[in-house]
Amino acid sequence: LSNRAFERGYTTYTDFLNIQEISILSSIKTNSVATLYGGYTNAERCICAFSDSEVFTHPITCIKAEPLNQKFSDKLTHRDFLGALMNLGIEREMIGDIKIIDNVGYIFCIDRISNYIVENLSSVKHTSIKCTVADAVPQILNELPEETEFIVSSLRIDTVLSAVYKMSRSSASQLINQQRVFINSNIIYKDSVLLKDGDVVSARGYGKFIYSKAVNETKKHKIVVAIRVYR
């Protein structure tokens, strides 16, 4: 796709890439400029545009999936929405992030399947829903989470992971060994990596957070850190 954009002078697009694919992309030198976007500022799954032009639009639509009767609806989760979409025969790479706000799903998808989703996604779990193309992306998705303070013994990635997700250090190390932890979209291989201010950490199966800074030190010489955790 990069070579085609470079040789023929037009913009090409991938499907949605997961964080591991984005990590691979970041290690490759491309002939044309690669621009990642997932439909909103903090998206994890993104489409990559290869282009030498500054004027292009990523082919992404945001669909609002809202229960017909919110009072009697199930509590809907990411897994519920994704399962319903897969049951429609939609391939995973056609779908970006799925965010739930007040039990309403916001589904980011490739433009060409948006009408299909609107016309065919009528229920999630046991709840009847109505799908429409969202007029705008909810502003909250573009905002950073509030900072939360954690006490850690060091800034090692395994130590901070265990504090944020309430797991043992050995479990955090196992995640890293399984190549499921990324810093700034790059896969990491060592649990001794030290976090720097502003690092974005993603742990597949757990979530994402931004390490803001070290705030203070306790009397027992532990470090108080500020972290923005995506819920």
List the helices and strands and how they pair.
Elements: H1 2-8, E1 12-17, H2 19-26, E2 33-37, E3 46-51, E4 60-67, H3 78-87, E5 95-101, E6 104-110, H4 114-120, E7 123-124, E8 127-133, E9 147-152, H5 157-164, H6 169-177, E10 181-183, E11 186-187, E12 200-203, E13 207-217, E14 223-229
Antiparallel strand pairs: 1-3, 2-3, 4-6, 4-8, 5-6, 7-8, 9-14, 10-11, 10-12, 12-13, 13-14
Helix pairs in contact: 5-6
What is the structure about, briefly put?
With 231 residues, the protein is an alpha+beta fold. It is built from 6 helices and 14 strands.
Explain what the structure shows.
- It is built from 6 helices and 14 strands.
- It has 231 residues and is α+β, with helices and mostly antiparallel strands.
- The strands form 3 sheets. The chain has a 6-stranded antiparallel sheet with strand order 9-14-13-12-10-11, with helices on both faces. The chain has a 5-stranded antiparallel sheet with strand order 5-6-4-8-7.
- Helix 5 (157-164) crosses helix 6.
- The longest helix has 10 residues, at 78-87.
Features:
35% strand, alpha+beta, single chain, 231 residues, 6 helices, five-stranded antiparallel β-sheet, globular
Tally of DSSP β-strands: 14
Q: Which series of helices and strands comes N to C?
A: HEHEEEHEEHEEEHHEEEEE
Please outline the major beta sheet. 6 strands, antiparallel
Q: Which stretches are low in confidence, meaning pLDDT under 50 for 5 or more residues running?
A: none
Tell me the β content: 35-45%
Distance between the termini: 34 Å
- How many helix segments? 6
**What is Rg?**
20 Å
Instruction: Give the fraction of residues assigned to helices.
Output: 10-25%
Q: Compute the average pLDDT.
A: 94
Name the strands of the widest sheet in spatial order.
Answer: 9-14-13-12-10-11
Q: Which structural category do the helix and sheet elements fall into?
A: alpha+beta
Shape: globular
